[in-house]
Amino acid sequence: MTPQSPRPSRTTRRSFLAGAAASTLAGHAGARTLEDLLGTTDPLAPRAPHHRARARRVIFVFLPGGLSHVDSFDPKPRLVADHDKEVDGQRLMRPRWEFKPRGESGMEISELFPHLAQRADELCMVRSMVAQHGNHAQATRGMHTGSTAVVRPSLGAWVSYGLGSGNPNLPSFAVIAPKLPYAGEQVWGADFLPACHQGVRIVPGPTPLPNLAPRVGEEHAARELGLLERLNRRHLAARASSDLEARARSFHLAEGMRREAPEIFDLSRESDATLELYGLKRGATDGFAWQCLVARRLIERDVRFVELIDVGSSNNWDAHGNMDTHKKLARNIDRPLAGLLSDLRRRGLLEDTLVVCTTEFGRSPHRDKKNKNGRGHHPKAFSSWLAGAGVRAGHVHGATDEYGYRPAEGAVGIHDFHATLLHLCGFDHERLTFRHAGRDFRLTDVEGEVVHGVLA
Amino acid sequence: MAARSLSLLLGLLPLPGPLQEDGPASFFETRILPVLEERCFDCHTRDAGMAGDLLVDSLAGLLEGGERGPALVPGDPEASLLLRALRYEDPDVEMPPDEPLAPEVVDDFAEWIRTGAHWAAEPAAGDGPWWSFEPMANPEPPPVQRGDLCDGDVDRFLQARLEAVGLEPAPAADRRTLLRRVTLDLTGLPPTAAELDDFLADGREDAWERVVDRLLASPAYGEAAARRWLDLARYADTAGDASDYPIEDAWRYRNYVIESLRADKPYDRFLREQVAGDLLGGTPEERVERTTATGFLALARRYGVGRDQDRHLIVGDMIDTVGRAVLAETLACARCHDHKVDPIRTEEYYALYGIFASTRVPFPGSENEKAPERLVVLEFDQGSPAEARRRDELAYLVGGFDRELARAKAGAEEAGAWLDALSAAERGAAAQLLGRPAQASREPLDARVAALEARRAPIAKAHAELDGRTMRRERLFAAAEGKPKDSHVHRGGAPGRRGPVVPRGFPAALTPPAVARDVSAIERGSGRRELADWLVHPENPRTARVLVNRIWQQHFGSGLVATPSDFGRLGAAPSHPELLDWLARSFVADGWSQKALHRKILLSQAYRRSWETTAEMAELDPENRLLARFSPRRLRAEELRDAILLLADTLDRAPGGAHPFPPSSKWWWTQHRPVRADYPTHKRSVYLMVQRLRRHPFLGLFDGPDTNASWGARGETTVPAQALWLRNSEWVHERSREMARAWLGAAPDEAGRLDTAFLAAYGRPASNAEREELAAWLESERKAYDVEGSEDPTLDAWAGLARVLLASNEFLYLS
Asked: What does A152-198 look like in DSSP terms, one character per residue?
């Protein structure tokens, strides 16, 4: 694709003329013209897709710390049979949870996720994931940006850059996270992409977005805005500048956001049946069920990429000490995730929404070095699943060896994974590029092959 | 992915664009070369020992072949020995010997040979010369028709171009606009009402010149100028490792930059100090200052959880920073392969690599080893010779006591342990045996320890006192010389895949003959001294050009070269090449003085134009590259925050020092609980603590600095979150009340108060119409607040006005 200017907001001749026209019109009429104008220069405008694709939005669930694949999504009967056996100086450990075939597909999922297991026929399980690094921060950064060490734009920022904004009142990339993950905000940063593509964090709780509520009464806020508009209009009257128009306009957009955002978080009109589906108590303003329901409400409003992070960089899936800690973490997300899939399906949203669930790496099939009940980091193999738009449902892609140490077939590296997700959104990962520091960067570096096996 | 798994695991820098196009080069780079590197280079390279005399790391090597003759016949796979070996067709040559390549990979080789065995890894310089590798010209200012539109040579260069396209430039902006523009540009703060009065009242011919000189001499200039350099130096107060450990002493580098720019330290010296200041000697003060300067290198980003993890990336960060900030060259593109478009070869990247890898930088601490290490400590003896002698004597005595005490303590411990192990009966027997019953206790030994300690104490105290008085020690997060060593090439950017060793040196394309003649070869030390000579040589084709372009960008919004940190072929060509070279030449001739350069630019008519845009300008030069008018810009994040604090009369103008990090002995952070600190202050924004793993919430919202890489131009985004912050954030509300209080107290009547507010926010008094409108607005707000039972309706109403002014374009933009 054509290289993008690092400052797409720079005035072009066309935008100048449009801006000049806009500036002579007052208030809202001018704003509409401005929207047309922004269509040519707005960094949030969508890129032309490279091929037809179903996914218009993405929900990306990230489980920090390293979910154990051999206890959840990757059944290993030999691991049960050879429990406690020493292999290469390591003592194997059987999974804590029993695997069973589920649904019509017969996909095996363990009792760790009983609710999700009932949605097995919606899932496309990838059992042959390979991480780039064995340490949390690097692997987390890798899963999100394709780069373990050097800071790069996040997957969500790339999708936002590609798909553009679907709703000017809301950010195109939202991250619902109670705590910061490993590598902090770099996980949802835009780096060299225009800053409007960076993830906006929604913090579960009474004030999910900062500065939304006016600190003065509504009437005062309205009168302040009225005065601001008059001052700005006069200031622009004699001049023309798309930058200044856009700035003046941003206060309207903020008003839109201020109006629309509280609606997102107001769950009072959700039926009891829906709340029940997610396992959400009426009136709750946090918890993973709240996150999932808010995610649905965000994508209903055409937010392009919603990331859900269940826990932070501590007290997470990093079960070195005892695998039993997985139980509580799984219980926290199991029903909400299953509920989210059901809810999306019954509303028809799963048709054009891609749902992804992953972690930064797997856990060792053997016992942790220091703790006999835990498992260590295992970047060489782990499982992730996809569901929804364009995904081959009820399918298992790839497999690990008899104990779950390494992919035995269909290995999927992080760049392959990213290439596939972009493909599902309509983009050729080699052509979704951005010119920066003298060259065209892309999410997948110089690697990545689309995993065709997971496509419907 | 198997063949490329190594580079995937190492998270290498990506290759640039052209590779991604289909074609023989791409086929070779993606399908053939990685296989050769992974499976063949271990034996078939000159370094590895050239098994069978065959070299497969170049096309020539394959064509020449080994002991069995040529390995390759381009265009004819079946005649190529290479393919026979890969197919295991000949039992004598089965390659690779351990196991054959996958059939589809062998097919790739067949295809590659069939299509001519295109070997792409030749030096990939683009076609023809490119301006920024050429020597600077010595242009003369061109003749112009309208001398009245020119106040100096800068104007002449610009005017000639305007005349060529037939554009009439905008008239000069009014004095208020100009003062706000230049004051923000040079100091990062808006002008005060008194400064406005002075300038408006100054009828002298050189009033403008006086303003520029006053601002350049102001302390605030150093702070504003430093912030721009700190963007380039990817300055941060934390290291960027997985836990983002603090760099406690980073602030000393920051303040060094402020002081240096304030003092107009010549740019060549400024650079020399930052690259090699520790090698320059000088008085104690100079040595501290110059060593502090090397924080420029030492502040490189860190990675992972352990000591010096991914060292090649730390070194790579230094190269990238020097490359982008000083030379505007994307050297990092040559890390894995030859630069795709600029004439920088991989060997040349590793020639530079050797210099930085031979440089020692401190370890800031990390999850695994929490305490910082290898900080540079400079010691200076400031005592008289007699004091020094006395200090040495006392140190000798203290050392003697320490040795004796260690022995005595060990003896007491040993005896104690022995006695503890004895039963009562045995102890009695031992006392009998020794004939000295009292000796069966460790008490006498403990008493000796106590006595020694008592004798040592006053001597140690005297030593500490004298030492503290006469010795000066400075702890610095700075660079030092390491073990000088040439680096080997990292094939494909992977440090483990050793290519040839390259002597330390400089890229040929950026080393014209005059520089080559004057910069000596690196024979002793890391080579940083020579690096500094090379960078600041007046004939270096980049250094001066890059800097003058950055200063131009500061004043006009965009540089003469629109890509300030990339002067390579993928960057932009200059809009006014002669002006750029003329400025660069005169910059060097003026002793590399940045202030003289500012002056030269700011005294031009071009800088003083209004931003009024005619249809002609919009038609002929929509992007304003020819500068017929002024391009407005939004206040930078720091300018915005500082201006708000100034208006609220709560800006703390004192310089900032160290941040209140906990003492390093108590550091405990892990990647699970990384450093996340916020140290609120009312000092200028350049003194805010900025992290690498976490953006400062306010600076991040307004396109503030990216602290992870050298950054030459900030974004200027407009998003609703900024609007919400300006209208609803607690911080703005607090400041708006402070402003209201200040303005209400500034004048007895409403008109006077409004003028105060407008002068502060906009640099102009309110117009009559505005006074009328605002008086009515304030009155209705006051009434509404009163009805609501507000404690201070007037203050509330004025705070509302303050917020409106802060959110308005006339405040947020510099025009």
From this structure: ---HHHHHHHHH--S-TTS-SEEEE-SS--TTGGGGG--TTS-GGGS
Helical residues (DSSP H) of B422-442, grouped into ranges: 424-434
Give the three-class secondary structure for A355. Answer: strand
Phi-psi region of A337 (alpha: psi -120 to 50; beta: other; left: phi over 0): alpha
| Candidates B245, B672, B690, B758, partner chain A, best to mutate (most A CBs within 10 A) | B672
Measured between beta carbons, which residues in chain A are less than 8 angstroms from residue B693? 183-186
Question: Which chain B residues have a beta carbon less than 8 Å from that of A151?
Answer: 706, 708-709
- Is the pTM of the predicted complex or chain greater than 0.95? no
Phi, psi of A125 (to 5 degrees): -90, 130
pLDDT at B18 over 60: no
What integer pLDDT is reported at residue B439 of this predicted model? 55
Mark B672-709 as b/e (b = at least 16 C-beta within 10 Å): bebbeeeeeeebbbbbbbbbbbbbbebbbbbbbbbbbb
Name every chain B residue with its beta carbon within 8 A of the beta carbon of A158. none
Are the C-beta atoms of residues A317 and A359 closer than 8 Å to each other?
yes
C-alpha distances (whole Å) from A230 to each of A130, A248, B634, B773, B774 are: 57, 10, 20, 10, 11
ipTM, two decimals, is 0.78
pLDDT tens-digit readout, A190-212: 888 887 888 989 999 988 998 98
Span A73-100, average pLDDT: 95
Q: Which pLDDT belongs to residue B20?
A: 29
Q: Where are the alpha helices (DSSP H) in B505-636?
A: 513-518, 528-536, 543-556, 577-589, 594-602, 615-620
A57 - beta bridge partners? A353
Given A217, A235, A246, which is nearest B810 (Cβ)? A235
What distance in Å separates the CA atoms of residue A87 and residue A106, rounded to the nearest whole number?
30
**Which of B33-37, B110-114, B394-398 shows the highest mean pLDDT?**
B394-398
Q: Once rounded to an integer, what is the mean pLDDT over residues A113-138? A: 96
Q: List, in order, residues 6 or more apart from B330 with CB less than 8 Å away.
A: A437, A438, A439, B323, B324, B339, B342, B566, B568, B570
Nearest to A194 among B717, B720, B800 (CB): B717
From A231's Cα to the closest Cα of chain B, the distance in A is 7
Q: How far apart are CA A207 and CA A194, in angstroms?
A: 26
Do residue B813 and residue A247 have CB atoms under 8 angstroms apart? yes
Give the nearest partner residue to B812 out of A184, A213, A247, using CB atoms. Answer: A247
Indicate the pLDDT class of residue B440, thresholds 50, 70 and 90: low
The tokens for B696 are 């400062």
* H or E segment to which residue B110 belongs: helix B103-114
* Distance in Å, alpha carbon of B98 to nearest chain A alpha carbon: 20
Do the strands A200-202 and A353-359 form a parallel or antiparallel pair, or are they unpaired? unpaired
Q: DSSP class of residue A368?
A: P
In 10 A of CB B430, how many CB atoms? 16
Q: Do B728 and A433 touch (CB under 8 A)?
A: no
Q: How many CB pairs under 8 A join A and B?
A: 260
pLDDT digits (tens, 9 = 90+) for B594-647: 999 999 999 999 999 998 888 888 888 888 999 999 999 999 999 999 999 999
Residues of A in contact with B716 (CB under 8 A): 7, 9, 243
Chain B residue numbers touching A445 (CB-CB < 8 A): 12-14
H or E stretch covering A35: helix A27-41
Judged against a pLDDT cut of 70, whether residue A21 lies above it is answered with no
Nearest CA in chain B to A431: B20
| The residue to which tokens 């009065």 are assigned | B197
Q: Is the pLDDT higher at A47 or at B226?
A: B226
Residue-level length of chain A:
456
Residue A41 is predicted with a pLDDT of 53
**Residue-level pLDDT at B277:** 98
